[in-house]
Amino acid sequence: EDQVTQSPEALRLQEGESSSLNCSYTVSGLRGLFWYRQDPGKGPEFLFTLYSAGEEKEKERLKATLTKKESFLHITAPKPEDSATYLCAVHISSGNTGNQFYFGTGTSLTVIP
Amino acid sequence: DAGVTQSPTHLIKTRGQQVTLRCSPISGHKSVSWYQQVLGQGPQFIFQYYEKEERGRGNFPDRFSARQFPNYSSELNVNALLLGDSALYLCASSVMPGSLEQYFGPGTRLTVT
Known about the structure:
Chain A is mostly beta strands and 113 residues long. Chain A is built from no helices and eleven strands.
């Protein structure tokens, strides 16, 4: 069964304390993996797309990496405004079901000033 | 540029009723996807449409249906509403169905009583 699992469920960091969020996946026919940020009551905001193992992408204090079984979102020297839920999702495609998108349940990040 | 727009913002319906939710994609985007997000969970994929054709379908009952119009806007219909259909319904648009850069709208909050 196709699955996306994120850990930890919740993370509290002091401002400036770097850490990593994990997204592990067990899917067949992976087309790519993406990361989103979601603030309460709003739609997810696109951050990154990763297509192949070994790929890395950076944006400000965030860096996403991809292996064959998992992805990491590294947050360097976070600020309070980085507080949000971070969602990981995968895109798979098959002849029977067409495009499918599976999201994890997210990591709720709180950065304390 | 305007982002993805959805209407209505909030909606309250009674069990057994039918509901139609609407989405307008970002200008130039031809693919629209629909997701259901229950509080505390990640979005669940319902449908993807590209140029009026269904390109993907998630594991939802036949009570859920959608269509895309020539101007690339889309409607999601849910018949015979159940209490469990209460959720945030998100629409996302992308340039192509294979593009993982999906941009989400603010969502429609549906409450079924």
